[in-house]
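Lecture notes, continued. The same structure-token format from the folding unit now serves as the input rather than the output. Read the line below as a description of shape only.
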């Protein structure tokens, strides 16, 4: 990836380009997280880009001083420019002279084979400084994905197809007719196949349609909370706020939510693709069946 996308530039500053692979674009989007977890130690500064590498208390000179004019940003300029005899000399370069306080804590160790990164996420008090996939994964997961709605969805014992369905609903990624038509896919009938009255959208199918109302009111009765709202986040909030009812109740509520969402979506797909119709009472029965199967 380095030779294909970064080429002679810097990983830290190379722009996110549409021609990059999805993987590389994702890596680039997480640079901020990586920066928060690494620290540079110097042998002689020769392997560290003075302007672009985040070596000053996890920031780069570029982050601190802003974009340099072309001449100051000579690509090859390394930290060796401000190291003399194994010691920092930030006063020898006009862009670093005011940064003495931030630069001095960066360790220079002439016995190292070369400049190197130390992997040091803030929550790890000790470590070898070697990069660990597990700790990186946890760092990214904490920073981005596990805003609590996602955590809520990934519960043990829940069928994967249901988890995925709720997850897509949270992200707004289910392919409803309004979305398909916004992508330019021909949709002969934009109406909801469950009621035939309103245009099909995520909000309509899961929260406004008569079928959705029947399902959420049944779940509300069983769970003893008002499980309805304008979006999945509303229902998750209601369930999460009632956690005090105990672990078993909470687990059941999560399973009920996922099974309800999945069965609505399944019914919608069966009507569109197979021409099969299950009446609401049958759908409610199927939800109960799945909830019981997952609980035992
Ligand atoms: Zn409808």
């Amino acid at each position: 990836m380095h030779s294909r996308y970064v080429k002679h530039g810097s990983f830290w500053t190379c722009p996110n380009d549409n021609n990059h692979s999805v993987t590389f674009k994702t890596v680039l989007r997480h640079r901020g997280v990586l920066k928060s977890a690494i620290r540079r130690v110097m042998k002689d500064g020769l392997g560290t880009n003075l302007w672009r590498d985040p070596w000053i208390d996890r920031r780069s000179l570029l982050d601190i001083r802003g974009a340099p004019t072309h001449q100051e940003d000579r690509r090859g300029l390394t930290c060796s420019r401000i190291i003399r005899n194994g010691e920092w000399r930030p006063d020898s370069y006009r862009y670093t002279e005011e940064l003495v306080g931030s630069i001095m804590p960066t360790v220079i160790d002439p016995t190292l084979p070369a400049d190197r990164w130390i992997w040091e996420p803030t929550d790890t008090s000790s470590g070898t400084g070697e990069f660990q996939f597990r700790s990186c994964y946890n760092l990214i997961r904490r920073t981005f994905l596990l805003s609590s709605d996602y955590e809520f969805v990934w519960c043990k014992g829940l069928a994967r197809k249901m988890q995925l369905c709720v997850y897509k609903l949270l992200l707004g990624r289910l392919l409803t007719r309004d979305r398909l038509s916004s992508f330019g896919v021909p949709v002969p009938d934009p109406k909801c196949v469950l009621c035939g009255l309103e245009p099909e959208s995520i909000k309509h199918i899961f929260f406004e349609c008569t079928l959705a109302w029947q399902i959420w009111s049944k779940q509300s009765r069983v769970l003893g909370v008002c499980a309805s709202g304008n979006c999945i986040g509303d229902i998750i909030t209601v369930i999460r706020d009632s956690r005090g009812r105990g672990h078993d109740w909470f687990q059941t509520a999560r399973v009920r939510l996922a099974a309800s969402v999945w069965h609505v979506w399944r019914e919608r797909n069966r009507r569109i693709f197979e021409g099969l119709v299950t009446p609401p009472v049958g759908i409610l029965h199927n939800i109960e069946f799945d909830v019981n199967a997952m609980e035992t």
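Point for the exam: The first strand starts at residue 38 and ends at 41.
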